[in-house]
Amino acid sequence: MGYKYHCLNPISEVGIQNFTEEYVPSSAEKADAILVRSAAMHDMEFGKELKAIARAGAGVNNIPLDRCAEEGIVVFNTPGANANGVKELVIAGMLLASRDIIGGINWVQENEEDGNIAKDAEKAKKAFAGCELEGKKLGVIGLGAIGVLVANAATNLGMDVYGFDPYVSVDSAWRLSRSIRHAKTVDEIYRDCDYISIHVPAMESTKGMMDKNAIDLMKKDVVVLNFARNVLVDEEAMVDALIGGKVKHYVTDFPTPEIAGVKGAIVIPHLGASTEESEDNCAKMAVKEIRNFLEHGNIRHSVNYPDCDMGYRGENTRIVLLHHNVPNMIGQFTRILAKDNMNIADMTNKSKGGYAYTMIDIDSEVPDGVADDLRAVSHVLRVRVIR
Questions:
Q1: Residues 6+ apart with CB under 8 A from 76
Q2: Which residues contact 127 (CB under 8 A, 6 or more apart)?
Q3: How far from each other are the two terminal CA atoms of the chain, in whole angstroms?
Q4: What pTM, to 2 d.p., does this model score?
Q5: 368 CB burial (10 A radius; 0-12, 13-18, 19+)
Q6: How far, in Å, CA of 286 to CA of 337, rounded?
Q7: Cα(55)–Cα(37) distance, rounded to whole angstroms?
Q8: What whole-number distance in Å separates Cα of residue 5 and Cα of residue 28?
Q9: Which among 90, 143, 146, 190 is least buried, having the fewest CB atoms inside 10 angstroms?
């Protein structure tokens, strides 16, 4: 069985090469899977064959997640694939905020025709003096893939690192340096740290979390770094804090009209994941997710459906069902299968919010009409039979 894919943006060839010869490029209207980076998809009409969308990156605000879920389209992202690239830019941001490197470079460019530039630089450099990172307190809010790397790297620079994440995963906890101190509340980070770096996803509960009240708790001359999402910070409150001298520098990877040009703001043009390695890693992960889903029905790193993995299907026929998360769905599925004397070798069901996913391995023959019977069940959004 062959599959069709379409790339809405240029996707790293290193990733595309991980498709087998069974996969062929096609138009978006006929594709089984779409790979995307930043292209806006909210106004797109999706083809009936579209089963998966993989975002080669972490943010998915360019994809209509609810509509995709309702149409039985699983949306994936690639968390952690670009983490090292972002981590390195965060460290660069701390260095730029600690020492006026940009001001010094600009001075050299402005005085490039000065024949005594070396001598004059010795006099001018006092204006660009700064401080070192060693010994300073860094607070990391959010200890996911990027936050853990930032925290660990900062400890290696001699910083005193505090981490806060009430939902830290077991995997992240294992990777976190033992020297990192765990803050009990985010207010502890705000009150005690010289540098604060935020690494949480943009959700209704986190949008605007760094507001005037949070900034009021911070030390004078604090440095705030935001390489996660611009909506996490109340920019009006941040501009006031920069102008008023409460915040020394706000380092952000998200240019907006509100923050660009404000004194004390160091604004980078969204370069966090703009490395060759990050783009390659994201593409490879996106292709892997699509193949695992289309060939075996497994879901990993979905943002609108639950993760669910039954491994390679082997010789069994696998039936996968995307449906609403309502009672008695499993009972209806098993009754239909029992009616045709099919034997269930394995089965799993997972839910996420209003949606659920059921995987069933059958070790006997599966009649052609079974898929139609399953589709006729109320609240079923999509059925696939993988042979």
A1: 52, 53, 54, 55, 286, 289, 290, 293, 299, 300, 301, 302, 303
A2: 100, 103, 107
A3: 9
A4: 0.83
A5: exposed
A6: 33
A7: 6
A8: 8
A9: 190
- The pLDDT value given to residue 202: 86
Q: Within a 13 Å sphere around the CA of 114, how many CA atoms are in the beta-carbon half?
A: 13
Chain segment 295-347, per-residue pLDDT in tens: 999 999 999 999 999 999 889 999 999 999 999 999 999 999 999 889 999 99
Cα dihedral: 165, 166, 168, 174 (round 10): 90
Cα R_g (the chain), whole angstroms: 25
Query: Of how many residues is the chain composed?
Result: 387
Which pair of structure tokens corresponds to residue 119? 């001598």
Better-scored residue on pLDDT, 340 or 195: 195
For CA atoms 374, 312, 354, 381, the dihedral sign is negative
DSSP 8-state symbol, 299: B
pLDDT (average), residues 340-367: 95
**Among candidate residues 176, 182, 173, 189, the one with its CA nearest the CA of residue 137:** 189
* CA distance linking residue 191 with residue 19, whole number of Å: 50
- 16: tokens are 């595309």
pLDDT, tens digit (0-9, with 9 covering 90-100), for 137-148? 999 999 999 999
Q: What is the 8-class DSSP label of residue 302?
A: B
DSSP state of 233: B
In the predicted structure, residue 1 carries a pLDDT above the cut 80: no
